[in-house]
Amino acid sequence: MNSSRPSAQHLAGIARRIRRRDLDMIYEAGAGHLGSELSCTDLLVALYFGELQVDPDEPSAPTRDRFVLSKGHAAGVLYVTLAEAGFIDPAELATFMQPGSRLNGHPDRKLVPGVETNTGPLGHGLPVAVGMAKAAKLRGESWRTWVLTGDGELQEGSNWEAAMAAAHFGLDNLALVIDHNRFQQGAAVADTNDLAPLADKWRAFGWHLHELDGHDFDAIFAGFDVARSTRGRPTCLIAHTNKGEGISFTRDRVAWHHRVPTAEEYAQARAELTEVPS
Amino acid sequence: MSPAPTGRALHDCRDAFAETLMELAETNPALIAVCNDSVGSSKLGAFQQRWPERLVNVGIAEQNLVGMAAGLANGGMLPFVCAAASFLTARALEQIKTDVAYANTNVKLCGISSGMAYGELGPTHHSVEDFAWTRVIANLRVVAPADPEETRQAVRAAAEHPGPVFLRLSRMGVPDVVPAGYAFAIGRALRLRDGHDLTLIANGTLVHRALDAAELLARDGIEARVVNMATVRPLDEAEILAATRETGAIVTAEEHQVHGGLGSAIAEVVVGHDPVPMKLLGVPGIFAPTGSASWLLDRFGMSAEGIAASARELLARKRPAATR
Ligand SMILES: Cc1ncc(C[n+]2csc(CCOP(=O)(O)OP(=O)(O)O)c2C)c(N)n1
Ligand SMILES: [Mg+2]
C-alpha cells in the first residue's frame, strides 16, 4: 500500500536508467528479449518503486507482497529492476547469461532474491499467483499478489483455468497486469490467434476489469488503486503498451522480440536512451 | 557451438528438416505444419510463404496444438507438429499419450531445439526429459537423428510410417556423420565404426562426439565400436546384443537426463539378455546451470575427452571374454 508515491518524473528517470542498463546487458550478453523487456519496463518500475511492499533486506519476509513475472523471457529487465531496487548487486548484471551465472535467461527463485517463482514456459505465472493469493486468504493476511503476463501468453489455456479459480475463490487480493503490446514472438497477436475482445473475456470470467496506458505512471497507479479498492473479485489491468517502447526502431516491431542489436543499432539506441537532464 | 576440428562444417539440422518437409508437401497435399508461434524457430518461414493455408499456427497453446493435430489427422490431414521440444512434450504430454499414441492418430511430433540447445535460456527451455517421457508411451516411435542426411531420411520415414512418431531435433551445429549411401529405417541402428574392445552408443548431437572419442581411444590402442542409435523406441536389440557379445562393455552418451533415456533403454535390454558393464553419460540428474549446450555437455563428461575417459574407466571393469 503506497500513500506517497514517487513522482512520475522521478520514475521516468529510473525507467530510462533501467532501459539503458537492460540494453547494455543484452548487447554484452549477445542474447535477451529486448522488445519484450522494453514493453514492461514502466510497469515493473511502477510496481517496484511505487506499489510492492517488498524489502531487499528481507526478501523472504512471510507477509511481503508477491510479484510474479509470468512472461519469464523478460528476465533481463527483472534483474535490472531488482538490482535498482537493491535485491542484487548491480555489478552482477555483467554476468547475465554467462556460464555459471545465477542470472539465467529465465528467472530461478532458488538463486535470485526477489524472484517468487520460476517462469519461462508461458502460462505458469497466473495459476501460481492464484495459489499465493488463496494462501493469503487462508492465513488471514493482508499482503497482495501481483502477476504480469504477456498478451500472446494468454493463448495458453492454463490462464483461463486460473482465471475461473481466482473469481470462484473471490481473490480480491490478486491483480493481473497484462502487458498488452499486441505482438507475440513471430507476429501480431491478432494475426496469430486473436484474443479480442480481451476485456469482455475477463469480465465474463468474473474479474473486475480496468484498462490503462502502460507507459503513463499516473495511469498505472490509478489502475493499481482500482485493484486495491476492488472487493470480492480479482482485478485484471489491461496495460496498453508498445513492444520495444523507448527505442524508435524497436517500437512495435515484432522482429525485436529477441533480436540483439548490431554495433550501429546499439549506438543509436544508446543515444536515444541517454539521460535527459531533469 | 561445439568446437569442430578444422575443416568440418557444422550444420543446423532444422534446415534439412524444413527443406524435406517442403519436398514432401510438394507432392502430398494433405501434409500440413502445425505450430505454436514457432514458425521462425522451426525454420518454416519458406513453408508459410509457399502454403500459407497449410501452416496452422494455433498460437502459444501446446495442449490445443497437439489435440488439434489429432483432430486434423482424423480429418484426413497429415500434421507435422513443429514446436520447441520442451513445451511440446512437457506441456502436451497427456495429449501425446491419449489423443495421439493411444488413439493412434497419424500425427508427427517434431520437437525442435531439444536437449540443451537453448543453453543459457535454462532448464525451463531444456528438453532433457523427453526420451524418458515419450519412450514409455506405447505406440510412439521415438527418433533422434544425428546429422542433416539422417534428419532428411527420418522426416521421410516419419511421413511414411502410418502412425505416431516423435522426431527429436536439434539446432546445435553437427558435422555430417552418416556414410554415403546410408539408408535410414526406424528401429535400425547404424554402426559407424567397428571395434571389439567396447562399444560407444549415442544418438543425435552426441554421435560426432562419440566418434571423436573413439579416435582418441584408438591412439591408445583401444578399438571402440561406435553405434548411432537414432531410434530410442523401438530399440535395435540385435545391435545392442552384438555389442555385449562382441565387445563386452558399453558406454552410452546422450543429450538427456542420465535417468530414463537412451542409456536406460539400452540397459533394460542388456540386463535382460547379456549383462555387461555399462557407463551411462548424460545430464547427471540436476537442473543444468547457466551455460551453452556445448559448455554443459563438456561439463557433464561428454566432450570427446570425457567420453574417452569414461571408456577407459569402464574397460578396467570389463570381464575377460572367457568368463562372460
Ligand atoms: C509454453 C511456451 N510456449 C512457447 C514459448 C516460446 N515463447 C517465448 S516468448 C513467446 C512470445 C510471447 O508473447 P507475449 O506473451 O505477447 O509476450 P511479449 O514478449 O510480447 O511481452 C513465445 C512463443 C514459451 N516460452 N513457452
Ligand atoms: Mg505481447
CATH architecture of the largest domain in chain B: 3-Layer(aba) Sandwich
Helix segment tally of chain A: 9
Series of secondary-structure elements of chain A, N-terminal to C-terminal: HHEHHEHEHHEHEH
Model regions low in confidence, pLDDT < 50 over at least 5 residues of chain B = none
Give the spatial strand order of the biggest sheet of chain B.
2-1-3-4-6-5-10
Proportion of beta-strand residues of chain B: 15-25%
State the fourth-level CATH superfamily of the largest domain in chain B: Thiamin diphosphate (ThDP)-binding fold, Pyr/PP domains
How much of the sequence of chain A is in beta strands? 5-15%
CATH top level class name of the largest domain in chain B: Alpha Beta
Structure overview:
The complex is a heterodimer of chains A (278) and B (324). Chain A is an alpha/beta fold and 278 residues long. Chain A has one domain: Rossmann fold (3-Layer(aba) Sandwich). Chain A is built from 9 helices and 5 strands; from the N terminus they run ααβααβαβααβαβα. In chain A, strands 1-2-3-5-4 form a 5-stranded parallel beta sheet, sandwiched between helices. In chain A, helix 8 links the parallel strand 4 and strand 5. In chain A, helix 1 (8-29) packs antiparallel against helix 2 and helix 1 (8-29) crosses helix 3 (75-84). Chain A starts with 7 loop residues before the first helix and ends in a 6-residue tail after the last helix. In chain A, 55% of the residues are buried. Chain B has a 7-stranded mixed beta sheet, with helices on both faces. In chain B, strands 7-9-8-11-12 form a 5-stranded mixed beta sheet, sandwiched between helices. Chain B starts with 12 loop residues before the first helix and ends in a 7-residue tail after the last helix. Chain B is built from 12 helices and 12 strands. Chain B is 40% helix and 18% strand. With 324 residues, chain B is an alpha/beta fold. Chain B has 2 domains: 11-174, Rossmann fold (3-Layer(aba) Sandwich), CATH 3.40.50.970; 190-316, Rossmann fold (3-Layer(aba) Sandwich). Classes of the chains: A alpha/beta (278), B alpha/beta (324). The complex binds thiamine diphosphate and magnesium ion. Magnesium ion binds next to loops of chain A.
